[in-house]
Design a protein that fits this description.
- A hairpin with a 5-residue loop joins strand 1 and strand 2.
- 44% of the residues lie in helices and 21% in strands.
- Helix 1 packs across helix 4.
Length: 151
């Protein structure tokens, strides 16, 4: 690693630690020439994930969109933010492990529904009503019937 102060190519690592989310390594380095210390961070480079919307436009994956949808679906339910963050983490990890760096928004919606179904049936119906764009009571009834069958 080149020294940012004197551009010397010879520096040495004097301390390495994992950062708190444990997603990168923090290294303290010492320049062999000028004696100054500096910090570098090493993390795995990941490809950005593109979400393909219904109209075939693409936008960058944003975990906060999933989280805000979950929060809206779980209002006044006995579900804490930690549980919702865990769901978003699981979904993000699953998407990151896919061979492609593109995913359809409908696939993300299905991943959310799958997890909500196991967590809270009311939150599941709330999310499904928005995600599947229910227009009438018949659609609600059909979804509730399917939910009862899957117990």
């Amino acid at each position: 690693m080149k020294c940012p102060f004197c551009s010397n190519p010879d520096t040495r690592v004097i301390d390495s630690r994992l950062t708190e989310p444990k997603d990168c390594v923090r290294r303290r380095r010492l320049c062999e020439k000028c004696g100054k210390r500096f910090t570098t961070y090493e993390r795995v480079e990941s490809q950005p994930i593109a979400v393909i919307k219904k109209d075939n436009t693409r936008e960058p994956f944003d975990r906060n969109k999933i989280l805000s949808g979950l929060i809206r679906a779980c209002i006044k339910r006995n579900i804490n933010t930690e549980q919702l963050n865990k769901i978003v983490d699981d979904i993000e990890n699953e998407i990151s492990s896919l061979p492609s760096n593109e995913i359809r928004s409908s696939e993300i919606g299905n991943l959310v529904l799958k997890r909500l179904k196991n967590l809270d049936k009311v939150a599941y119906i709330r999310f499904a009503s928005v995600y599947k764009q229910f227009n009438n009571v018949k659609q609600f009834t059909r979804e509730l019937t399917e939910l009862k069958k899957s117990k």
